[in-house]
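ligand=zinc ion
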Amino acid sequence: MYDKYEIVMWLETHVRVKSKTKMFCSCKNALALALEPNESTCPVCMWFPGMLPVLNEEVVNLAVRAWHAMRCTINERSQFDRKSYFYPDLPNWFQTTQLYHPIVENWEVKTFVNGELKIFHIHHMHIENDAWKLVHAGSKTLCDYNRAGWPLMEIVTEPDFRSKDDVIAYLEELQKIMRFCGASDADMEKWQLRCDVNISIRLKWENILNNRVEIKNMNSFAAIARAIDAEFKRQVKIYEKWERLDQETRWWNDEKWTSSSLRSKEDANDYRYFPEPDLPTLVLTKEYIEERKIEELPIDRRLKYLNEYKLQEDDARILSNERFISDYFEKLVELTKDPKKSCSYITSVLLAHFKWSLEDVWFADLKFDVSELAEVINLFNKDILSSTNSKIVVEELFLNWWKTDEIIDRLWLRQTNDTWALEEIVNKVIGSNPTQVEQYRWWNEKIFGFLVGQCMKESAWQWNPKIFNDLLKKLLG
Ligand SMILES: [Zn+2]
């Protein structure tokens, strides 16, 4: 019965901006969540009567970077609005947000879903402050105001999502973008990224959007995937019984894998939006907006690695996932002009070293400069280092933090171009493998690789196989 239904979703994501202080006051924006209840509060973020909010410049700075990263057009003028509703976590009865004149327009997020490049469109996006937190303790409910005034970016998509894979891929890309531009660490466990999923279903041949259910405030990919599965099945069962689906907000219990109703869903009219009288129009200059531009996003780099550099899909993904690795790779390519080797020295040599290292090390812990690794690759490309020796050099760089040149000289790793010594090796191999040489001469060209291998072995893997390749060809005529 599930097959004939299609799921249609859109997402409301809240990303917590990584500013030092809260949105409208100088209280700490405690990112680690370790504060005692109500430790980071003041009359402004508790909205005492008569207190005036002052917009935090750092929030605007980071948000503008994030909007550039979301490929938005950023408006020079925008206005805050009051969104009024009564809920116990909001004793002042309104949230400061943007509705009528939001700061940005036009945007999209591009990502791969199961190997296919997809574009998800954003409906609107703005900054707002967070409500406070209710803690239920026995028969009492306690208020923690630490969260009040946390700066948030709300990002609402179009109903572009047709599967949980779409949703997870989009959220992962969003997380990457936020980390890349430095606006947020977007750590879901620390509630720096949380997501409401709006779900409706329809028969596959229908075009209408049916009543929707919003599942609120989820903060793990696994929980989101489970909630989508469960909600899809719940809605199908309701339609199959010819019952009406209530438009409502539900809460997902990820321990019991079920959802329960929180409240019926309000329309925008119910919120009585009106312009916030306590905050002036936000005016940004063209230069301010321009200075914060971000040229290349993780997805742009990933596509460049695939299409221009012709790297494998897995490598392109690994090298674009994290800013630090990606910047390291970019620098290495700049110095070597060799994307393929730069890729393999990172993915198979450096990452292997990290993996086998006894200590917990990462790129930031490397004691040698990226130019030393570039030198290794360049020397290898010039046949001055053999493949085996180049790996020895990297290991020494890694363990003893020397300079590439110094290691090569100390360990006598420079490949000599002593033709006489090399010819002697090749002649020896030809002499001790008469059958294979005959085979090669008369009919079996494939055996050539075996002879090169023998030369490499004879030379204790000191030289580049290319040299033996050329010499063997010459001597075998
Ligand atoms: Zn405060």
